[in-house]
Amino acid sequence: MADTSMERMYQALITRVDEIIKEKDIPRLEALAEALLQVPSEGTLSEKRKAFQFSYLYQVKEEPVQPNHQLTPDAIGYLVAHIVDLFTKGESANLIDIGSGTGHLAMTVKEMVENVELSGIEVDPSLAEINANLCEFLEVPMNIHPQNVIEPSRVNNANIAIGDLPVGYYPLPATDYKTAFKTGQSFAHLLMLEAGMNLINKDDIGVFVVPSNILEENNETIKEYISEDVSLLMFLNLPSTIFKTEKQRKSLIVLKKGFSPLINNEVLIGDVPDFKNTVKMQEFIRQLDEWHEQYDRK
């Protein structure tokens, strides 16, 4: 028996998805999008978001999806949120999620940082639909732009950009991008990172989940980019324990728009400890906060 608000909503979503599939014979995520508009929501934002999260995970377990359609784990989302909170300092800010998918990462940040207003860009119509319906379920507004972020757009600039960037090659030529390779197909995650930084103002911040080897393999264009157009503030390797292989490991990269020479080793580079190790995580967050205090004085 479901005892909490989260459990009741989760069970209601699971039941309604199964009913919709029997009625219409449609993919599970499409049915979930419909169910979000039909199942009443209750409780806190955290409870409602987790009810969606667990129901989404259940659907993709029953009907697997490509890796880029997986949700960003909460531990990573909360760390992104903490960094966003440090740089917004409690002031109102417009946040844009690059390749926003279902909107789950942006909603995780909103759960922790109430002062941000959300927008997102997502090219996949099925994910954008889930995002739109999730806004209704969570009762959190978010401007969703169903388009390719790499193509020219009229999206308004934000104060901070985030993104769990899909890894892979971009199939089309990418003109006017410094991170594009000189020959052959370019990395989509590099182009999306640059596109995200293009949508914020000078001195504003981008926080992205990227492959850990982003600065090591095929790194000529990204190294040029971070030495001319943006400033590297942080590069934090996420715990290897949450990835199946070292090749799949990801990191958080934090950039400031506009290049400025490094002063007093102000770039924070290191490894995030295992999220389950509470003592080490508390120490890591303390070091992160101290770094930001020093950075903020400059």
UniProtKB/TrEMBL annotation:
InterPro entries: DNA_Protect_Modify (IPR052933), SAM-dependent_MTases_sf (IPR029063). GO terms for molecular function: methyltransferase activity. Keywords: Methyltransferase, Transferase. The keyword Amino-acid biosynthesis does not apply. One of its GO terms (biological process) is methylation. This is N-6 DNA Methylase.
